[in-house]
Write a structure and sequence with these properties.
CATH superfamily: Gcn5-related N-acetyltransferase (GNAT)
CATH topology: Aminopeptidase
Strand order of the largest sheet: 1-2-3-4-5-7-6
CATH architecture: 3-Layer(aba) Sandwich
Oligomer: single chain
Strand content: 25-35%
Structural class: alpha+beta
Mean pLDDT: 97
Number of helices: 5
Shape: globular
Helix content: 25-40%
Order of helices and strands: EHHHEEEHEHEE
Length: 139
């Protein structure tokens, strides 16, 4: 089930974001992600339009949107590969009509996921925070 985020979801969203980030971005030190936990909870997530994918009463993942930009799409590692990411992305497509996002080039699994779900690369840039190349994608 997809629903709007509640303030009580923020702690679990940060946990999912951190756990999934460390696994998906092994090319970035875990300490980098740890240093952003407070900012995610107190600044970034509250500024976005957030939707939760809930399975059996538990938060399994979320998508964060600012306008037509997907700022975050994270699924708990234990819930990955079961359709939550696709469902959240389809929900965002239906809400917005068009989407754009940035994904690390070295996160091959995520790049494949987005391509499989209809997004296309439109450019590349270097992330100023990590020094890693990001692919700009659009739908």
């Amino acid at each position: 089930m997809i629903r709007a985020c509640r303030e009580t979801d923020l702690e679990e969203m940060v946990r999912i974001w951190y756990d999934a980030s460390v696994i998906a971005h092994s090319f970035v030190p875990a300490s980098f992600w740890a240093s952003y936990k407070s900012a995610m909870k107190e600044e970034y997530l509250p500024l976005a339009e957030n939707y939760i994918f809930e399975r059996e009463g538990k938060v399994a993942g979320f998508i964060s949107l600012v306008g037509e930009i997907v700022c975050a799409l994270f699924i708990a590692p234990e819930a990955q590969g079961k359709g939550a990411g696709k469902a959240l992305l389809e929900h965002a497509k239906a809400l917005k009509g068009r989407l754009s996002l940035k994904v690390y080039k070295d996160n091959k699994r995520a790049v494949f996921f987005y391509e499989k779900n209809g997004l296309r690369a439109s450019g590349e840039e270097v992330d100023e925070h990590t020094g890693c190349v990001q692919i700009l994608m659009e739908w």
